[in-house]
């Protein structure tokens, strides 16, 4: 019999996990508590009470070419950065193309997932689900948790002295639905993540005054990068990754910080991070101009709340406030799992490669998508799913053999806590290119630039100098896709198609840039001295 896999959630991660199960010959059942696919991206003006908007400015922060699943490019007429409706349309096409719909049970909530009594030998799980008020028990060989990390808001009111005396309104960003609530008000937004900046920008269009406070500051970058190209197609290339990783840490951070400050000098806008290293940036096109025009003011952290005002650190005067929005993130929470199955401490879980719980006797439970990459989440979770299903399949060949890689898991996780920046905000943040290369190497799907240079020089140069798009991980290995080469070579065509709607008679110069020349020399050096 085929191995039965329970997939929890039919959002982005759940859909690709279901598809990867089918690719490996496994038997998935995807449980989705709502009536449709899409998760957070299924946003409408009339928001379901149980699924409020987490991102009011519902446009993707990563470009379509960098956000695509690795064997299913976006249509060329889709915009470069996708409104939620177009991204949801893409997910529907993906679901239909790969026949995923029949494996999804909608309106079904996972109530509990528990190890079976014989878990030590079988690795199996008892799963209880509920649909239409009726509970059903199932037995599954493996579990893929794809429910995301936006269930339990983190609202540390104890960190804000005087909040109990505050007579105005306050709420967590998860409860935010529409900017009308800010009409004519003095608004304070606490926190500088993507949600906080998006809410502040929206609020400033109707509020009397909007203030944002941040203890650490933040790097802010625009979707529009060098020469108008999408930021991630310029930033996330193998050349740029090589430069960032071969330079000494302080020099690498200094160069990145210099590059980020070229759009605007963060210090002059009150945004310069306290610690001068490159944090995961905030993506917003409007914030600098809104600060310039006085629509948003940046302040340091809250010192104390009073009845109708707030006092900030290093600012003696009180600021009148009517509404406070706490954009303070989320706690890692899996209410359907036992606490001992996924140990969570200080907002992050102890997971091998950010996926497998480190202490289970059998590697039959995987948590996917519990990361925040500097780049698109979709191809990262797809790569996670490709590796996880291969691990499951390998286990199926010999269920009695111990999961030997767990022997090293604690050593990896605890001896190298800064590897992917776990110290910042205590959230799992990863360099997506380094992380995806690592997972791809586990399944034999990591592209070899030196190898391609010998067999397909044009493709090799595009892979190295161009955007590290997801299609690179379908050039070889399991799951190889015949269309990968063509998708890589035409990625800029699909990017420029929706914007180059008026082409002047004189085309731009095709002379190679200095960066390209330097990069080519680096590539040659890498080939000579070992990539």
TrEMBL record:
The chain crosses the membrane at residues 512-530. Keywords: Endoplasmic reticulum, FAD, Flavoprotein, Membrane, Monooxygenase, NADP, Oxidoreductase, Transmembrane, Transmembrane helix. Its EC number is 1.14.13.148, 1.14.13.8. This is Flavin-containing monooxygenase 1. It holds the Pfam family FMO-like. Belongs to the FMO family. Gene3D superfamilies: FAD/NAD(P)-binding domain. It comes from Pterocles burchelli. It is found in: Endoplasmic reticulum membrane. It is a single-pass membrane protein. The keyword Metal-binding does not apply. The keyword Oxidoreductase applies.
């Amino acid at each position: 019999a085929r191995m039965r896999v329970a997939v929890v959630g039919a959002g982005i991660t759940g859909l690709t996990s279901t598809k990867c199960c089918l690719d490996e010959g496994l038997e998935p059942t995807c449980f989705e508590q709502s009536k449709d696919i899409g998760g957070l991206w299924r946003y409408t003006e009339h928001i379901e009470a149980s699924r409020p908007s987490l991102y009011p400015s519902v446009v993707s922060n990563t470009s379509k070419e960098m956000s695509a699943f690795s064997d299913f490019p976006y249509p060329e007429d889709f915009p470069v950065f996708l409104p939620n409706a177009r991204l949801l349309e893409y997910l529907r096409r993906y679901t239909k193309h790969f026949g995923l719909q029949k494996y999804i049970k909608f309106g079904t909530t996972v109530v509990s997932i528990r190890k079976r009594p014989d878990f030590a030998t079988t690795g199996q799980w008892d799963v209880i689900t509920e649909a239409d008020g009726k509970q059903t028990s199932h037995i599954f060989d493996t579990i893929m948790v794809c429910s995301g990390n936006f269930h339990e808001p983190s609202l540390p009111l104890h960190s804000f002295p005087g909040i109990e005396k505050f007579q105005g309104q306050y709420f967590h960003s998860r409860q935010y639905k529409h900017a009308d609530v800010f009409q004519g008000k003095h608004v304070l937004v606490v926190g500088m993540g993507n949600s906080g900046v998006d809410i502040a920008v929206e609020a400033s269009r109707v509020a009397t005054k909007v203030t944002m406070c941040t203890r650490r500051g933040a790097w802010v970058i625009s979707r529009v990068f060098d020469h108008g190209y999408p930021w991630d197609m310029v930033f996330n290339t193998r050349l740029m990754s090589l430069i960032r990783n071969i330079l000494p840490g302080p020099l690498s951070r200094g160069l990145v910080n210099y590059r980020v400050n070229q759009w605007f000098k963060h210090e002059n806008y009150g945004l310069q991070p306290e610690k001068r290293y490159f944090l995961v940036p905030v993506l917003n096109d409007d914030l600098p101009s809104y600060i310039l025009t006085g629509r948003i003011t940046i302040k340091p952290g809250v010192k104390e709340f009073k009845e109708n005002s707030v006092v900030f650190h290093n600012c003696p005067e009180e600021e009148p406030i009517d509404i406070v929005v706490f954009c303070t993130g989320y706690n890692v929470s899996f209410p359907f799992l036992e606490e001992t199955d996924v140990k969570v401490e200080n907002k992050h879980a102890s997971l091998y490669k950010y996926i497998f719980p480190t202490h289970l006797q059998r590697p039959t439970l995987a948590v996917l998508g519990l990361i925040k990459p500097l780049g698109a989440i979709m191809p990262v979770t797809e790569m996670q799913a490709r590796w996880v299903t291969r691990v499951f399949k390998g286990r199926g060949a010999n269920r009695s053999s111990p999961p030997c890689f767990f022997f090293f898991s604690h050593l990896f996780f605890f001896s190298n806590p800064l590897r992917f920046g776990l110290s910042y905000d205590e959230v799992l943040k990863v360099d997506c290119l380094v992380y995806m290369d690592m997972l791809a190497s586990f399944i034999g799907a990591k592209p070899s630039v030196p190898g391609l240079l010998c067999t397909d020089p044009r493709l090799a140069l595009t892979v190295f100098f161009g955007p590290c798009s997801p299609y690179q991980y379908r050039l070889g290995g399991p799951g190889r896709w015949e269309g990968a080469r063509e998708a890589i070579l035409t990625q800029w065509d699909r990017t420029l198609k929706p914007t180059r709607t008026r082409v002047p008679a004189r085309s731009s110069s095709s002379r190679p840039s200095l960066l390209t020349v330097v990069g080519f020399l680096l590539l040659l050096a890498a080939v000579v001295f070992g990539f």
